[in-house]
Design a protein that fits this description.
alpha+beta; Maf protein; 11 helices; 46% helix; 17% strand; binds 2'-deoxyinosine 5'-triphosphate; binds magnesium ion; hydrolase; Inosine triphosphate pyrophosphatase; nucleotide metabolism; magnesium
Length: 299
């Protein structure tokens, strides 16, 4: 190749590399810039599919950080399902400043977070933290309490965690708390095949919430259970095993129900109703303990 042509090629190669570097920089900055503009939130969602890889690495770096509601949801939800911020914004708790019960829900699951916020409504001001907790093994109650201790030790503020099980009666309660791994390996469509050799298709969804704050010696447990049957997958496949669980008394699976209906009959709803009752009954205690702590720490 003549030296003149070689020079041209080098120049074109440099141009391509510069263009690539520029586009990486622009795409990395795009979310931050978009979120600060008036149409930021909606523009950001529109572009989230394009910038997903950049975001993923950012949200990993952010694991364990605390964040106030819709912002956290819009970040973690990228990994899971599209976000419905309008619902969340309506549901956010606005109470008299300094008198709200602030509770942090530790979870890595944006679907759970969305449901919990919906169900708790204005009972508390909900924050969330995607703390990287281990998937403990054992009895559902022990798993939930263990998770809660770990979360509280890290965050040192009132926390809730939950662990969800899907239990097949014909299998003595399995997969139970291990349903996450079964889902990962089989997918929700093949889960009903575990019951192929059994007439009994009955099952129950179990939710174990644990609550801990620094006035307690150990986490408190709130259990919710919804009975049903395992069916072939039907409905929106966005949330775990929802398409294969049909609660007793309904001809729809969880995945075919509106979120309003699921959130008034679900295992999660039943557990949270108990937690709500506890929180309402202990509100004054909670606020007093919290205020005393603030005075002590000079906040
Ligand atoms: O209402 C539900 N409807 C359908 N599927 C559900 C539901 N609730 C949890 N699930 C799935 C998520 C996970 O595959 C497994 C429970 O495992 P589980 O450890 O509790 O959840 P996770 O690890 O996703 O979130 P977290 O960070 O709160 O532990 O069942
Ligand atoms: Mg988990």
């Amino acid at each position: 190749m003549s030296p003149g042509r070689q020079g041209h090629c080098t120049f074109i190669a440099d141009l391509i590399i510069s263009a690539k570097v520029c586009s990486v920089v622009v795409l990395s900055l795009l979310p931050a810039v978009l979120q600060r503009t008036p149409i930021g939130a909606s523009a950001f969602r529109l572009t989230e599919r394009v910038i997903r890889p950049f975001h993923r690495s950012r949200s990993r770096q952010g694991a364990g950080r605390l964040s106030l509601y819709p912002d956290h949801l819009s970040r973690t939800a990228l990994e899971l399902t599209p976000v419905e911020p309008a619902v969340m914004a309506d549901d956010m708790c606005v109470t008299e400043k300094g008198k709200e019960m602030v509770l942090c829900f530790c979870t890595g699951n944006a679907n759970k977070l969305r449901e919990v916020s919906f169900i708790l409504g204005k009972t508390v001001t909900l924050t969330s933290a995607d703390v990287d907790l281990p998937e403990l093994q054992g009895d559902p109650a022990d798993i939930s309490v263990g998770k809660c201790r770990l979360a509280f030790n890290q965050l040192k503020q009132p926390v809730i965690v939950e662990d969800t099980s899907l239990c097949f009666n014909a299998l003595g309660g399995l997969p139970g708390p291990y349903v996450k791994w079964f889902l990962k390996k089989l997918g929700h469509k093949d889960l009903p095949k575990l019951l192929a050799g059994f007439d009994d298709k009955s099952a129950y969804a179990l939710c174990m919430f644990s609550y801990m704050d620094d006035t307690l010696e150990k986490p408190l447990l709130f259990e919710g259970r919804t009975n049903g049957v395992i069916v072939d997958a039907r409905g929106d496949p966005n949330f775990g095993w929802d398409p294969i669980f049909q609660p007793h008394g309904f001809d729809q699976t969880y995945a075919e129900m509106t979120k309003e209906l699921k959130n008034t009959i679900s295992h999660r709803y039943r557990a949270l109703e108990k937690l709500k009752t506890y929180l309402v009954q202990h509100k004054e205690e909670f606020l007093t303990a919290h205020a005393a702590k603030k005075v002590k720490s000079g906040e």
